Amino acid sequence: MKHQFKDGTLYFYFYGELDNLTVCNLKQICIDLIDQYQPKTVKLDFEEVSFVDSTGIGFVLARYKQLQKYHGELIICNLSKVNHRIFAMSGIFQLMKEERNGVKL
After folding, report:
1. Which CATH superfamily is domain 2-104 in?
2. Rounded mean pLDDT, 65-74
3. Mind listing the pLDDT tens digit for each residue in 25-37?
4. pLDDT score at 101
5. Taking residues 54-74, what's their average pLDDT?
6. Domain boundaries, the chain
7. What whole-number distance in Å separates Cα of residue 96 and Cα of residue 24?
8. How many C-beta atoms lie closer than 10 Å to residue 20's C-beta?
9. In this model, does residue 19 exceed pLDDT 80?
10. Residues contacting residue 19 through CB under 8 Å, at least 6 positions apart
11. Handedness of CA 98, 49, 44, 53 (dihedral sign)
């Protein structure tokens, strides 16, 4: 994972699989960065993510909840068709929006 803070937006760039093992390694880093920057917007870029499981969905929901204390918005970016389907089945798009954009470093 890479991250960048620019113009009040915190960007997270994920790659590979967002599963139980990956989430365990990334969770505290993401929590600390959100608490440090207290951004108004967090964009999660999934362009390089090949697989997301229920732990990955839970991780995204937990970051959404964490952002609520800063009145921030979480946006999911660049999902593949398969990952979009998984997120859609979870109902997550009722809480946050999706973008297809260039959030490249």
Report:
1. STAS domain (3.30.750.24)
2. 96
3. 999 999 999 999 9
4. 79
5. 97
6. 2-104
7. 23
8. 14
9. yes
10. 51, 52, 53, 55, 56
11. positive
How far are the Cα atoms of 28, 33, 44, 60, 85 from residue 65, in angstroms, in the given order? 15, 15, 14, 9, 22
The phi and psi torsions of 51 (rounded to 5 degrees) equal -155, 140
DSSP string, the chain: -EEEEETTEEEEEEEEEESHHHHHHHHHHHHHHHHHH--SEEEEEEEEEEEE-HHHHHHHHHHHHHHHTTT-EEEEE---HHHHHHHHHHTGGGTSEEE------
Full DSSP string of 38-65: --SEEEEEEEEEEEE-HHHHHHHHHHHH
Amino acid in the structure at residue 90: S
